[in-house]
Design a protein that fits this description.
Structural class: alpha/beta
Distance between the termini: 36 Å
Largest sheet: 8 strands, mixed
Number of helices: 9
Strand content: 25-35%
Radius of gyration: 21 Å
Order of helices and strands: EHEEHEHEHEEHEEEEEHEEHEEHEEEH
CATH topology of the largest domain: FAD/NAD(P)-binding domain
Number of strands: 19
């Protein structure tokens, strides 16, 4: 391979999506990861591609664009890896108390362009017959989708390789090499210095640490989440279903444990049960009380789950920016250093448009969504 135009540091979903979009535009790309493709946050994800869980604003605009950009991206994948379990199953958000807050939230989303259909409890039972009878109202989101995140990330990287790019596992980025004028001319790694034209920091929850090593620190913190996985079941939950508390948990900056009920099926028949959010640094220990709370709340939403065996649980760290917006774009302090991180639990869904946006900015093209809200030099993110 010739000297890469861009080295992407991080082979998770966001890094893979950026590399795929850049390579599709003719940019020479090298992807490195200290572990391997999809080995970190991506492997601990549920694969959600959602528009239902975001307040109107820049992140929702990015999510709406990304939901349909995903279909374009998937159409570019090599046929041998194209099946990433893409399911346009839709979502159902339910209220079990006062329905007014959920209905008001849906109204705001509709005004922002989301297909959010307020339905009665009876209509919710038609969509999901096994729901608790305590449901008072619901909102149906036909555009919510799901994919298998590890399959998708590795498929994106396969597309990069097919276009002449390269992916190297087991290589750790240590910092950037800069010219006398301060511009990035290489990446310092455990394999030595690799010459390049630019470096993209797509290190997920470790992006803050790498940014400091690169001489341009940003505030990106880890936020831990845990998922329960049931034994395989016959088809029984048709949509992604969650309670109305989920939206508040997504947008909260509280460091303490927060849980809300999220239940969805996979193609293999297992049920994924979430979700939790907790700022505990990089402590990976599994806490029984978190698992118990997830299970209890899931049974409250779908009572039949009380008789279903939990097969395993897994957890991971999500990259969290203090203002709840991704960090996407060039770093003004170090010419040639770029960032794509801070998506927290929405990285799978936002990855397609993040990759497109990075590519547009890198090539000087008009961005398909407003880039300004995600800029690196905003007060909540930049350090130093």
């Amino acid at each position: 391979m010739q000297q890469p135009d861009v080295i992407v540091v991080g082979a998770g979903m966001v890094g893979a999506a950026c590399a795929e979009a850049l390579s599709a535009a003719g940019v020479r790309v090298l992807v490195i990861d200290r572990d391997g493709p999809a080995a970190g946050t991506t492997a601990a994800g549920e694969g959600n591609v959602l528009v239902s869980d975001k307040e109107p604003g820049p992140e929702l605009e990015l999510a709406l664009a990304s939901r349909f950009e995903w279909e374009t991206v998937l159409s570019r994948l090599p046929a041998r890896v194209a099946d990433v379990e893409w399911e346009t199953k839709g979502g159902v958000v339910v209220a079990t108390g006062d329905p007014a807050p959920l209905q008001a939230f849906a109204a705001k989303q509709r005004a922002a362009g989301v297909d959010a259909r307020v339905i009665s409890a009876a209509e919710a039972f038609e969509l999901e017959p096994l729901l608790t009878p305590r449901v008072t109202a619901a909102v149906h989101y036909p555009d919510d989708a799901q994919l298998q995140p590890v399959l998708a990330a590795t498929a994106l990287l396969a597309a990069v390789r097919e276009r002449g790019g390269e992916v190297r596992s087991g290589v750790t980025a240590l910092g950037v090499r800069r010219s006398a004028s301060g511009r990035v001319v290489g990446l310092e790694t455990t394999d030595g210095v690799i010459a390049c034209g630019a470096v993209l920091n797509a290190c997920g929850p470790w992006a803050g640490a790498f940014s400091a090593e690169a001489g341009a620190p940003i505030r990106v913190l880890p936020r831990r989440g845990v998922v329960l996985v049931t034994a395989p079941l016959p088809p029984c939950v048709r949509h992604k279903v969650y309670d109305a508390d989920y939206v508040g948990a997504v947008g909260s900056g509280d460091a303490d444990l927060q849980t809300s009920t999220v239940v969805e099926s996979t193609r293999a028949g297992t049920m994924l049960i979430g979700s939790s959010r907790e700022r505990v640094g990089f402590d990976s220990s599994m806490r029984v009380r978190v698992l118990q709370e997830l299970a209890r709340k899931a049974v409250g939403l779908f009572p039949f789950l009380a008789e279903v065996a939990v097969m395993r649980s897994y957890g991971g760290f999500r990259p969290y920016a203090p203002d709840h917006l991704p960090v996407i774009g060039a770093d003004p302090r170090v010419p040639g250093l770029w960032h794509a991180t801070g998506h927290e639990g929405a990285g799978i869904g936002l990855a397609a448009s993040t990759g497109r946006l990075v590519t547009e900015l890198f090539l000087g093209l008009a961005p398909h969504v407003a880039a300004e809200p995600f800029r690196v030099d905003r007060a909540a993110v930049i350090e130093g």
